[in-house]
Amino acid sequence: MICSPFFADQFDNARIAKRVGFAETVNLETTSAEEFVSLIHKVLTQSSYRESAARISNTIKRLPRTPVKEAADWVEYTQAQGGLQYLRPRGLDLPFYQLYLLDILFVAFVILVVGLFVIRFLLKAILKCLLGSSNKEKVN
Asked: Membrane-spanning regions, if any (predicted)?
């Protein structure tokens, strides 16, 4: 098997398949056509890949329960327990403003605005000190 992972858990799955010995990984963006053909030839001709795949296949076939039976058992267990509310994500119970962090954004916005006003006030005071204030009196 030749794995070319693109997204999410595919990278981990490809790494595991290579470590177990029944696959090779390839990055299609950086691999040349010659390297790819060489990799295909390697996987097709070396018996170690076939043997590893057969070993894993036998292991999966000899599982005490099939994946479908396992999933069905978990669904039945969940129904029997009343839905397992402790596994329900807490985010489903959050108010809208907390779920989308609007409370945090509001506080950050207020801090930003107050900070800008303080900086403006300080800059005005510094400029006034540096440039001096004109104490000219009006002459008629």
From this structure: 99-123
List the end-to-end C-alpha distance of the chain, in Å, as a whole number: 98
- Length of the chain, please? 140
pLDDT single digits (tens) 53-98: 999 999 988 988 888 999 999 899 888 888 778 878 888 899 999 9
Distance between CA atoms of residues 11 and 23, nearest Å: 13
Look up the pTM and report it: 0.50
Q: SS3 of 19, please?
A: helix
- What is the distance between the alpha carbons of residues 31 and 34, in angstroms, rounded to a whole number? 8
Left, alpha or beta for 3 (phi > 0: left; psi -120 to 50: alpha)? beta
Which of 58, 25, 19 is CA-nearest to residue 42? 25
Q: How many CA atoms lie within 13 A of 104 on its CB side?
A: 5
Measured CA to CA, the distance from residue 85 to residue 89 in angstroms comes to 9
Distances (CA, A) of 135 to 5, 123, 132: 74, 20, 9
Query: Could you tell me how many helices (H) and strands (E) the chain has, helices first?
Result: 6, 2
Q: Which amino acid is at 137?
A: E
